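pinning this so it doesn't scroll away 📌
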Amino acid sequence: MNPFEQLSKALARKQTTKSFWQSDLGPKSQSRTGAIRDLLKSTARPMTAAEIAYDVDLPSHTQNLVWLLLKYDIKKGRVLFSDGMYAWNAEFDSAEKTAIRAAIKLLKKNGYTVTEGGAA
């Protein structure tokens, strides 16, 4: 996509939330990818790589780094990428929770004990 076209689309779209991330709250994650995920989850609109790089304090010349950091999330369906804009896929969370509940039900049905907790 032409950068001028991308800029004009970004400026012309309706702004529904603040365009900056509340950095005083700080990112929940220590990694760059985690910080980008937190940012996309907290905003209700698609964002360009330049906006993400600015809000997460990545150097301005590393806009390509945003795509590299989110490549796995895009492949898994967590992040949607269209026309140079990144957005968090809210449906992914509900689909993942449904799959987890189905897996727990299957394990319990086959006699396994399922405890709450994360991977060690």
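📌 and the second one:
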Amino acid sequence: MLQNCYRTLGLVGKLIVAEQNTIAHSLRNSIAFTTPMTPNFLVPIRLKHHQQLDYSRYPKLIEEELEETFTRGSGPGGQAVNKTSNCVLLRHIPTNIVVKCHIHRSAHKNRQEARKILLDKLDSHFNGEFSIQAQLKAIEGKKSAERKRRQNKLQEMKQKWKEREQQETANDNKNN
């Protein structure tokens, strides 16, 4: 196909195609395609149910109520994992909820992740059915029930259509 373009357009066509190839190559290597970024058109879709969630009861962490210790990690990785103390044990003193986090290699990231996990556990502990996780589960349940209702409705319509088609073919056979 490119050869046909070259024949019809001549030298100008070759330059245009070559320029498009260099633009495509430069776009592939640009920062927009190599760094993970959230496209702007996806943001409203992801935040669609964000407005339905009630964050007013979400707990706040008070650093004085936390007891933080660093322990040695475990799991796959051998000596590199076993000799570093980057596993975070975070205990909320008033409720005695303990969180252990050893997801990342660095202690700093594990501290941040442990606090997120502890906040979710405190939210579930204090708020119960009004916690963020329970709200998300309820929204997901409503969505799946609606999906199931639509699917059942479609199945009924298909079944009625098949029955009607069978009746029509039976009537056509009787008439012939």
